[in-house]
Amino acid sequence: MQNMENRYTHSPEDIRHYSTEELRREFLVEKVFAPGEISLTYTHNDRMIFGGVTPTEEPLEIILTKELGVDYFLERRELGVINIGGAGSITIDGETEPMKKQDGYYIGKETKQVVFRSDDPKNPAKFYVNSVPAHHKYPNVKISIDQIKPMETGEALSLNKRRIYQYIHPNVCESCQLQMGYTVLEPGSSWNTMPCHTHERRMEAYLYFDYANEETRVFHMMGKPDETKHLVVANEQAIISPSWSIHSGVGTGDYTFIWSMCGENITYTDMDMVPMDQLK
To answer: How many CB atoms lie within 10 A of CB 135?
Structure first.
């Protein structure tokens, strides 16, 4: 089974008077992974498609043709994949690669078939996928977290010490505009991306997961720096972050998140930092 929900774009003025429920309906994706299903969200922010592929007994393949006006899904798109569940595999145009937890893949445009499988239906793989428009075909590359030297940032004293694993990034592989990575907070730290920033040139999506327990929640901060709002995010839920919005969060316990970006460039450090005294 496959489903895809459309989410449209908003200006900062649009959300000024939104209720909590309206904010959640527009920017929070509450169900990313469903056993035996493909659950996708198409955000009109830079036409990013993201979601979860959770094969159980049968393999799954993303089929999007009429929706995108193409003959096959990746005819004019590139795709990033990170497995956050049990062991599985990906078959790309007939070639199969094993995918354990924390393995990733960059799959270039003009790839005609990508099939997802789980080794154990009772402990299925959870493939988080992210696709954006592409203008050039770059080589497919498998990426393991074991091969990435993390970027260490933040401080324990400010509760934001973390390791950033850059999966789809110029340091690792070529892509047209997709960037994708995996951020792990150190024990005792709870803030991500704080001090915060915006990047008018790129939008972003966050997937929050691997929570400490069922009671853990992340308070995700969004909005213009001088008019912030928040969303309460449960395990394995995702956030759409427009380019004009800050994107930061604080958790009540341990958590991890995957960030995905696309837009005008692939310069990871192209950020507009927000001084703390400008946050309201």
So the answer is: 9
CA 9 from chain centre, in angstroms, equals 18
Per the annotation, binding residues for Zn(2+) are: 197, 199, 204, 247
DSSP secondary structure code for residue 21 in this structure: H
Rg (Cα) of the chain, in Å, rounded? 18
How do strand 162-168 and strand 179-185 relate by DSSP bridges? antiparallel
Please give the pLDDT value at position 255: 95
Q: Which two tokens stand for residue 63?
A: 């089929």
Q: What distance in Å separates the CA atoms of residue 59 and residue 223, rounded to the nearest whole number?
A: 39
Q: Which of 168, 208, 166 is nearest to 190 (CA)?
A: 208
Q: Encode burial over 243-269: b for 16+ CB neighbours within 10 A, e otherwise.
A: bbbbbbbbbeebbbbbbbbbbeebebe
Residues 121, 85: Cα–Cα separation, whole Å: 11
Residue matched to tokens 């049968």: 58
pLDDT, tens only, 22-67: 999 999 999 999 999 999 999 999 999 999 999 999 999 999 999 9
pLDDT for 179 beyond 90: yes
* Alpha-carbon distances, residue 25 vs 3, 5, 31, 167 (angstroms): 17, 11, 12, 29
Q: Is the pLDDT of residue 201 over 90?
A: no
What are the structural domain ranges in the chain? Answer: 2-273
In the CATH hierarchy, which fold is given to the domain comprising 2-273? Answer: Jelly Rolls (2.60.120)
Q: Annotated binding site, which residues? A: 197, 199, 204, 247
Sequence letter at residue 177: Q
- pLDDT per residue as tens digits for the range 124-147: 999 999 999 999 999 999 999 988
